[in-house]
Amino acid sequence: MDAQHDLLDVDHLLDDEERAIRDTARRFAQERLAPHVAEWFEAGTLPARDIAREMGQAGLLGMHLEGYGCAGVSSMAYGLASTELEAVDSGLRSLFSVQGSLAMYSIHAYGSEAQKEQWLPGMAAGTYVGAFGLTEPDHGSNPKGMRTRARNDGGDWILSGSKMWITNGSVADVVVVWAQTDEGVRGFVVPTDTPGFAATDIKQKMSMRASVTSELSLDDVRLPHDAVLPGAQGLRGPLGALNEARFGILFGATGAARSCVETALEYAQSRIQFDRPIAGFQLTQQKLADMSLEHGKALLLAVHLGRLKEAGRLSHAQVSAGKLNNTRVAIEIARTARTVLGANGVSGEYPIMRHANNLESVLTYEGTAEIHTLTIGRALTGISAFI
After folding, report:
1. b/e per residue 274-289 (b: at least 16 CB within 10 A)
2. What is the C-alpha separation between 43 and 354, in angstroms, rounded?
3. Terminal C-alpha separation, the chain
4. Which residue intervals define the domain Acyl-CoA dehydrogenase/oxidase C-terminal in the entry (predicted)?
5. Is 1 within the bounds of a domain?
6. What is the pLDDT of residue 239?
7. I need a surface site. Which of 76, 112, 130, 216 has the fewest CB within 10 A?
8. Which pLDDT score is estimated for 4?
9. CA 158 from chain center: how many Å?
10. Structurally, how many domains does the chain consist of?
11. Residue 364 belongs to a domain with what CATH number?
């Protein structure tokens, strides 16, 4: 936000490099993406591969990873870039997050050197698009129940099963697929041109329409023995990647919130009713004050958690607190901002209803509000209430 609207002067807490990276991401998002996103959302399409290449050229993909063509910037800088992309649209931030913090992170953190060299440089450049296959049609919040299986066959692996709600699925060159094995849950690097792999786009979405969302089918997909990620065994692998992506979400949600606040402020100052701008009415000012305050608090929380992450002190429960709080705040801000615009708030001419619809998904994916609530409860009490 500009100085007038940065009520709590959060910008002061950032260093020069962080501001520079944020501003670069903001220019890219506003100049290359913002002019087209309403059209993409209305049409329910996204030129994902073209956008991935542009993100790669801008140095955004896997930006917080080291080596293999990745920029190696700080966690804070990655979070601020997430904010700027989601200020345009949550679907665009999802493309960025799934590529960098799920698919690339999994290969970077758990993969062999050969896997890293084969995939990461192209993914950082955006010439390869990645996806992350964990959620299944019947198992979302409980990944232990996954039915996708991988079995050994003459030294090869054979994968069978299905995955649901997979961002980038039908445009991906490679998918990190998680499956049950005799050794527990393992991750597999699956090129999408492998026989038996298929991806079908999910239609009739009312949310995240400027995003490619797919169902994956694995019908006896045969992979070589070295397709498995050697550094990940059990659910710690996929959950570790999800924690990286959730960190991006807790920043990203503040971007959607900021867009709604700025839109409401601008509209209220120009909309004339009863011969004066509606910004001059007390009830409108209350809404503007409350939204700005809640956005500022959410951004302060994100910055604090970013500093903890850089210090190596960020816990899973703290990530859950950030994701739960900031998505809740963002969706409430979107709903309130819509009331400032009245009927115009539902028009695609303004971003508010698009953000509100998207945030319904952001509230749910990568850990529902209920799951993050129970994660916090377990951290507070030492008692698990998941089962």
Report:
1. eeeebbeeeebeebbe
2. 13
3. 43
4. 233-380
5. no
6. 94
7. 112
8. 56
9. 30
10. 3
11. 1.20.140.10
Q: What pLDDT sits at residue 107?
A: 98
Assess whether 366 carries a catalytic annotation.
yes
DSSP letters, 276-290, are EEGGGSHHHHHHHHH
For residue 319, CA distances in Å to 17, 168, 330 come to 24, 24, 16
40 and 117 fall within a common domain: yes
Collapsing DSSP to helix, strand or coil, 343 comes out as: helix
Q: Contact 74/82 with Cβ under 8 angstroms?
A: no
359 shares a domain with 242: yes
CB atoms within 10 A of CB 387: 4
What are the Cα distances from residue 301, in Å, to 15, 17, 23, 349?
A: 17, 20, 20, 31
Catalytic residue among 18, 294, 366, 370: 366
Write down the pLDDT at residue 143: 85
Mean pLDDT per block of 10 residues along the chain (387 residues) reads 73 96 97 98 97 98 97 97 98 98 98 98 98 93 91 95 97 98 96 98 96 98 98 94 96 98 98 97 98 98 98 97 98 98 97 98 94 96 91
Residue in 243, 233, 106 with CA at minimum distance from that of residue 181: 233
CATH assignment at residue 162:
2.40.110.10
